[in-house]
Design a protein that fits this description.
Chain lengths: 114, 118
């Protein structure tokens, strides 16, 4: 079974631009969560999607948004980029059901805002 | 809100020795899951071990075991016979088991960087 795939792996953007990151979960996993990892703030939860619906959201400004498609693939978008958005963005997928629930992570997208 | 604290930013151990990483958490919930994740330089988070709060027995996975003290809200990870490949950042994480069924939000500690000395 293929693991969680995040694209692109690296991204450099300019302040004020917007960016879209993609996450393909493990086949059969319907939950996709996103996290931001920075040296200062550590790992922080952004949001979780399940069956195309956002069912949990972290404490991030509205510039951060996401969506999930019918095939469970998810995208997150950051608009009007700020220098502080530079981070590693991690996606995790989970099979929600009996016996499951571990989160499997992708390798992340390293976003640099200049 | 739940919080997770890892008080050891860095730890080092000699190869083949045993090391214990500390984690404490704060919650008012009685039902939850606790995890230890490993993040090597490749950046991919790998699940090391999980513990359900309702289980009194400490989880073990080969050389990895936990000491789960629910009343003290403590969840330490013991690595026996340390190997060079164990070098990584280790994160303790909490997930609620109440509220939205199957909700996957993880609350992470700040991490402990583990170095293995040959």
């Amino acid at each position: 079974k293929a693991g969680v795939t995040q694209t692109p792996r690296y991204l450099i953007k300019t302040r004020g631009q917007q960016v879209t990151l993609s996450c393909s979960p493990i086949s059969g996993h319907r939950s996709v969560s996103w996290y931001q990892q920075t040296p200062g703030q550590g790992l922080q939860f952004l949001f979780e999607y399940f069956s195309e619906t956002q069912r949990n959201k972290g404490n991030f400004p509205g510039r951060f948004s996401g969506r999930q498609f019918s095939n469970s693939r998810s995208e997150m978008n950051v608009s009007t980029l700020e220098l502080g958005d530079s981070a590693l963005y991690l996606c995790a997928s989970s099979f929600v059901g009996p016996g499951g629930n571990e989160a499997f992570f992708g390798q992340g997208t390293r976003l640099t805002v200049v | 809100a739940q919080t997770v604290t890892q008080s050891q930013p860095e730890m080092s151990v000699q190869e083949a020795e045993t090391v214990t990483l500390s984690c404490t958490y704060d919650t008012s919930e009685s039902d939850y899951y606790l995890f230890w994740y490993k993040q090597p330089p490749s950046r991919q988070m790998i699940l090391v071990i999980r513990q359900e709060a309702y289980k009194q027995q400490n989880a073990t996975e080969n050389r990895f075991s936990v000491n789960f003290q629910k009343a003290a809200k403590s969840f330490s990870l013991k690595i026996s016979d340390s190997q060079l490949g164990d070098a990584a950042m280790y994160f303790c994480a909490y997930r609620s088991a109440v509220g939205i069924q199957g909700a996957q939000k993880l609350v992470f500690g700040q991490g402990t960087r583990l170095t293995i000395n040959p």
